[in-house]
Structure formats: structure tokens, C-alpha cells
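Revision sheet: C-alpha cells.
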Amino acid sequence: MCVQELASENVPLQLNRDILDRVIVSRLIESPPDSYPQTPFQYLLSSYGRCLDQQRNMSPRHDAETQAALKDAAQASRELLVSYAGLILTGSGVVPEVSSRHLIS
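Predicted:
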């Protein structure tokens, strides 16, 4: 999924749970990259870490409403990332497994 796809659907470019879910599904299930630089689980784990970093480094220069929206988006991101990681760990088959030969070293 990319910005152009969202724009063509007249979807406002706001970070929310629905868009986050679509991005994760696109990245892991619908159109994964040909050569993964990391496994889907590693991708989710590193995304979770980046999400925490972004939340910790949130600028106080934003107004209270923007701060609340950013905090909600970060929380939704973490919840979705944990949910998809759980799907991988349970071996549900929802997220395709990547063999080590497809990983970029």
C-alpha cells in the first residue's frame, strides 16, 4: 500500500487504526517484498521498537489534541503489531512464512 493508493480512494492521510492495519496487511500478506531483509516476525518486532521510540520522542510543541491523536495512533500501532506477531507465533498461516534463503544478508 502506498500514499497514491490511499489518495486514489480519497482516504484522508491520517494515521489511524484502519490505515495502519491496511499497511501491515499489505506489507506482510498481500504484497510482501520479493526479498525480505528480515522475517515477518523480525519486521513486526522492529516496527514495535520504532513505534516506542517515536512515542518517547514525541514533541511537546504540538497542541493537546494533536498529542492525544499521536498517542492513540502509537497505541493502535503497538496493538496491531502485537496481534500480527501473535498470528505468526501461533502458526496460523495467515502471514506467509519466509524461508531463510529469501532473506537478504
